[in-house]
Amino acid sequence: MKQGAFSFWLWLLLLLLINVGCSKSVEIPASSTSPASVSSILGKSGSFKDESVQVGSETRIYRLEVPSSVDLSKPTSLVFAFHGMGKDNKDHMAETCGLTELAAEHKFIIVFPSAAIQSIQGQSVKAWSLAPEQIPQDIAFFDALLAKLQTQYNIDPNAIFVTGMSNGAYFAHLIGRERSDKIAAVAAHSGELGQYELLDIITGRKFPVMIIHGDADPVFPVEIARSAKETYASAGHLVEYLEIPGWVHEWDNRVDEKIWDFFNSHRLTPAVPAPAPASAATH
């Protein structure tokens, strides 16, 4: 077994015992939104905290933030933000990590999906794609949610991005790898490649990735991020690496603008600049 596989499960056991996130934890509420209610938000701005989508026999929930600053008549960027494991959740991430405010400032839609409960070494935990059987289910959730949002809003197909914290960063890596034809760029904060380190990052399209990590992280040592950077670079991906001195295993709001700048600079098809105005005639 490669060292990466051993380290993945070792740190996973540690994660089962702690909470990760931005600053504090809140318990996730039960969704009160039925699938039949989805048409009520069609093309509307607002904060929709308990939306749901049917994925096979499962009902999966998510939080959707559509700022009033977004011009819904025009193609709009979409960001998926995946929360960490344990007590971290969609509402915690939306309300404390600064991404909702970032969406309002830069006029894009952001969605916070909720992870499912799965069994890891006999313990039930809310997490992204750690149990092998959960991987296809979570990818199907992403596919169904993206398809639903594309029917409700004018989503720019060249500006779909994913980010995540800790276990959510691992899932952002995974979605980038599995859906490289749809995801324009990935930003992973304080996470690792996990079991996908064993397969390298071989995709049909080399997607850009931003890796953010504190050098004082006690959960995932910074060497994890440095290794991920090398794995991506060796596979031919564009990598922007940001190592934060003295930072621990929490989301750093100071990087929010950097994430958006990275996303906005790396779309599937570069935006065509508007023609410069004609110079005034001189006599």
Notes on the structure:
This protein has 283 residues and is an alpha/beta fold. It has a single domain (3-17, 47-265), classed as Rossmann fold (3-Layer(aba) Sandwich). Helices cover 29% and strands 24% of the residues. The chain has 7 helices and 10 strands. It has helices at residues 3-15, 90-96, 99-106, 134-152, 167-178, 222-234, 256-265; strands at 46-55, 58-66, 76-82, 109-113, 116-120, 123-127, 155-165, 185-189, 209-214, 239-244. The strands form 2 sheets. It has an 8-stranded mixed β-sheet with strand order 1-2-4-3-7-8-9-10, with helices on both faces. The chain has a two-stranded antiparallel sheet with strand order 5-6. It is globular, with a radius of gyration of 19 Å. 41% of the residues are buried. The model is unreliable at 1-11, 13-19 and 23-39 (pLDDT under 50).
